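call fold(seq) -> tokens
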Amino acid sequence: MRDTETEPNDEVKRGLLSQLNEIKGKLYGENCHMITMKQLNYHAYSKNNPKRYIQFQIPKKIKGEFRTITAPNAGLKCIQRCINAMLLEQFTAHPAANGFVPGKSIVDNAKVHLGQKYIFNIDLKDFFPSITVGRVFACLQLPPLSYEKETASLIADLCCHEGVLPQGAPTSPTLTNVVCARLDWRLTKLANRYGMHYSRYADDITFSCMSNLFHEDGEFVKTLRHFVEKEGFAINDAKTRVNSYFRRQEVTGLTINVKPNVTQKYVKLIRIMLHNWEVAGYDYAQSIFLEHYHPTKNVTGLHHIENVIGGKLDFLKMVKGEKDGTYIRLRNRFNELLGTVPVSDDSDKPIAPASDGTPSETAFDSLDTVLQNLCESNFDLSLL
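ret:
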């Protein structure tokens, strides 16, 4: 708990409000409605606004598992977007961080480890819930941000929910890089000591080298665990793995034995969906797609095959390049099929609320924001 002396006064709030409105004018245009002091106070504290966030689930890559998304309502989301832009103007992530960094993607993360014989992948357990409001408050006061206590307190309250960093807020990705800056520095030094390469994409950490130094009882792994735990995180042992050059090497979902590439399974899935559409028509392909698609628990509604294929092709283009032969052939097949998509009356309808009434139109707006944030970071949703 932060002491009452750090509670922001009106002068601090006016100062932050002025900065946020200046940024909002740049983001939304000069004629947009400015954020008011009343709105800032309303969204800053959960006791004032208990409905600041809604929660829903999206499927993970593993069948039957779901990821909980905690997304802000429209008013708070707007404020957080402005805060995020302000943070990005003042903070540059560590060079080893590739997740949620403007101009970087999982391809950049994978390239770090090309040509190495051994790849060591670990996952930080419960990444977002591990980052508490106290840690955010403390890190906001450190260089290069160097906010005063009162301002740091206000920003932390605006960006955290139930005492932790919510997975689904526009500010959360940037703040993870702020909080992990010291971890990145420590692990980079550790990698240099052993002649390794190191990179981090959100909660996915990768080391690589020409010799297998990744034995569980070895000095490197013991030191790594010590540093991770010292920074307030824990390693998810179930997702820890070592891949040698004799096997398929993967970094954040991409194979890197020769160059960063998607798996054969990824391309095969696109071909299967296109083949079903070409041979049996749209309705059949859509029905087969829905049989194998696992919708979220709390969001209902029709998921369209053309949107999924389009997203997968965009990701394939990012990884392989727009001049790649495989991408061009699949894209041409897809473009020819798009003219056969029937017009649906419900195509523009928002996602309907589930039986428990969880997401509504506001929830759909928040879901759109979450997906937009991931897409802006060049993140493939099929990796979730």
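Residues 296-300, 345-384 have pLDDT under 50 and may be disordered.
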